[in-house]
C-alpha cells in the first residue's frame, strides 16, 4: 500500500469506510489490536454506523465476536460519537476518497454533502 492509502480515513465519511479504513482508524484511536479481528469479521463504516441501533443482545454478540474488553468497547463508542458530532458540526471537510477518480471529485463532494444533510437528521435522533 502506498503512503497515501495509509492515511487515517476522513471522519466525515466514516459511513463509507472500507474494512481497511476502519483498521486505520482503530490504529489512530489506540485500538489497533482489534484491526485483524475487525477485518476478519468484515466490519466497515456502514456496520459501525449501524451500531447505534444495536440491542443489548447485539452489542454483547459484537463484543464476543471481536473479543473486545468492555473498556475498549466504550472507547470505540466514544470515538464513534466524537466523529458523529464532528459531522453534525460540519467540522470535517468533504474530500474525495483515494479510490475515486479525480474526474469525479465534484460529483463525490456534492453527493457526500447531500448524504451529510440526510444523516444529520438521524444523528439528532440518537440518545
From TrEMBL:
Residues 17-52 form the SAM domain. PROSITE patterns: SAM_DOMAIN. It holds the Pfam family SAM_2. InterPro entries: SAM, SAM/pointed_sf. Coiled coil: none annotated. This is Sterile alpha motif (SAM) domain-containing protein. It comes from Abeliophyllum distichum.
